[in-house]
Amino acid sequence: GNRCTEVAFYNARLRKRFRSISSDPKYTRSVVRQEFLADLAHLLMRTPVKRRHVVTTIAPSDDGSVVVDGHLEKEAHRFSHAFDLLVASDGVHSVARKTLFPDQAKIFDRGFSCIYMLVEAGPDTVPPGFLERANSGRSELVMGSICTMTMFPLGRGRLALGIGFDDEVKAELWAKNNLPKDTPWPDIPASTKKAIAVQLASDVSTEDDVLV
Question: pTM here?
Fold first, then answer.
């Protein structure tokens, strides 16, 4: 992963930077999930990493093992595996939590959405200052008027972005782009997604202005 040396805070509304936090690059990395899995697979000597497996059920056995059933992503092929140890880090819709801790499996709508994206330098045109930011060790947290953004430089000309906004802003954005209010993000046309992302990025642009 890309070495991280600093976490910076910026208020785009006030055009003001705040005190940064220094991090030790020997122990701090910015890395995308796919690369983390690839590195993990390389480190494991005897156990393969199985990707794109959708877990549907988890069943504890009388002998103390755990049986995991599911199917391959976008395929009908089924699988069933037994394990001695299960580490459940499967997110808000956790199958493990629903199965083993049903009382704690409630999902609450916090009225907030977040768009995650990976911005890469193209082969031809690169905005001025983009490569310096994407290959640096400086992560940024930016507050705008209608949204907030986290920005993690991944090296090799790539930035990972997370832009968050509340339901009121979402309703305004969807209406402005002629979308039904309940339209999920995957169903939005690519050109409209780009228009929404550009508007949000404009709101949290820093003085470097290399994202818009």
Answer: 0.74
Distance CA(98)–CA(45), nearest Å, equals 32
3-state secondary structure of 60: strand
CB 105 within 8 A of CB 58: no
Instruction: Decide if 164 contacts 112 (C-beta within 8 A).
Output: yes
**How many CA atoms lie within 13 Å of 131's alpha carbon, on the beta-carbon side?**
8
Q: Which helix (H) or strand (E) holds 120?
A: strand 112-120
Q: Rounded CA gap, 201 and 184, in Å?
A: 20
Place of tokens 């956790």: 94
pLDDT, tens digit, for every residue of 80-95? 999 999 888 888 889 9
- Alpha-carbon distance of 31 to 118, in angstroms, equals 11
